[in-house]
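Internal tracking record. Fields below are filled automatically when a chain is submitted to the structure queue. Please do not edit lines marked as system-generated. If the sequence contains nonstandard residues, flag them in the REMARKS field before resubmitting.
Queue: standard
Priority: normal
Entity type: single polypeptide chain
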Amino acid sequence: MRAAPAPPAVPALTTTAAVTVAAAVTVVACHLLFRGSATLPHDEDAASFRLIGDLRDWVDANRNASPLFLFLVNYVRLLAGGLNDGFALLLRELGWAGTMGLAGGIGWLAGGPRTAVTVLAGFCAFGVLGVWPESAETLALVLASVLLSLLLGLPLGVWAGRSVRLRRLLDPVLDVMQIMPTFAYLAPMVLFFQIGPAAAVVATTVYAIPPAIRITALAVERVSPSAVEASASLGATRWQTLRTVHLPLARATIALAVGQTVMMALSMVVIAALIAAPGLGSGIVTGLSRADVGLMLPSGLAVVVLAVVLDRTVTACAVPGGRPRRAVLAAAVLTLCGAAASLLLGTGFPPGWTLHLAGPVNDAVTWAKFSWYGVTDTVRNLATEALLNPLQEVLTSSPWWLVAGVVLVVAWRRAGPRDAVVAACCLLATAPLGLWRHTMETLTTVLTGTVLTLAAGLALGVAAARSPLFSAVLRPLLDAAQTMPSFVYLLPALALFGASRFTAVLACVVYALPPVARLVQDGIGAVSPAAVEAARSCGSTEWQVLWKVRLPLARGAILLAANQGVVMTLAMVVVGGLVGGGGLGYDVVSGFARRADFGMGLAAGVATVLVGVALDRITRGAARRPARKVPRWSPGKKRIS
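SYSTEM-GENERATED OUTPUT FOLLOWS
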């Protein structure tokens, strides 16, 4: 008798799918069985809140007695406040015309007449929008913060670029600093430096310093070793090699570090309005609290214009080469003309040249709300009822151990055991803070916003990678979007959908979409043309090429996009607390608004950082791990690996 043929080998993919289904069924069963138990409800009088409140009382009582404040904190506060006051005084004395002339001269010196025209038009727009004094105050805060960030960050970056040990020591610290949402920086600054411009400058300096260190270190590290060896062989000292080789060859990348520092500082000084920082942020915060788009719009537009002006100027400075004499002469003429005009016209911007936008803008918003109410209300209610409410109900009604277990298993599967333990521990650490329920609410918004951002980013990135025309249209829009501070994204969402959780989610999607779409586009575009042609020669359709070749080979870029989407969505979720986002964002805002809630606000900032670290470990760990090879097999044959 002939032996019966051996049964076909079961593919590993089927086994993996079976385990996944079994795990999902187990989680669902545990949720249904233990729903409503061990949920850790929010405690308004948690021990952590009282402890932080007592700490603040001790700081207030010992501010003028403790050596920590007498010999360190108070001097830092005086330095930061003095720098800001000095820049603000200079801009006030120059007046609008003198400041425009000086800025235009710097623009001409940096990039020629085109940059000078852009700078002049931008500074003129501040006056036309009716926010010249506020714009000058914001510019003073940015200049003071950027100066401190560069004085500290550039030397540290150069040192880290030449020292592997220091770079390894700084990397985890910079990772945490870049994960932390902007709001998380404010509460400690208020605790030590009180509210006002000094605290805003210190907070902005700390927030803006990571890119200065990290990009400078990368620039110095990438300098050609042969050039360094040639300098050393000629007898140059380490300082001479640094001055004549490292810094000149790394100039363009260091200029990028300066540009990123400026953009980060501008984003932070607007949010620092919550701790009584002067400038454009105060108008935006007041408008958000009143849901008054007309009040917010001039300040929001001025922030965008200032971002574009500073970005163009810093980018132009990065171009190598000396400046011709005529450029220096033109810059001097512009500066002198501005000073003369300031003497003739006065320091204040002429009121007759100002546009009053509040009334027409509010009328347009009211018309849009009533005209599009059916569409906007349907979209908001559908997203809330179909996405936000069900997910939040699952997370808030599940036992804490079940949520932590799911996070541990998913992170272990995607990122590895070390990252899984760190992620689970960070999430569990929010429970002793008394903020587990609000953490689940924030996690709901973050997950929803991240999924929507990735869906939109994949669609735009794939379309841009496959169509040069679409990419040419999309790129300037993404460039403009990436220069805008986070507060600005709340304006259109608030105008159309009012204050709600969906408004916060929509602002998150718009804020995080540009880097996600760009990373996906770069990843898809970097796929080997040979692999694509090989798939097409086998008869694959364009959809099959995309699904089987482009996306798998661009896995690293897509996972990096997911990481950036999570971090930026979390940062925007906290800002969304100003427009009804709830969760930890509301706790942070409440902590600034009421002294009695300061403990809760600072604890919420810590919880936000913990959530950010957990999500960052999962997504970044998944990006580091190599893709699993899917076994190839066919029915009736042994598996081929």
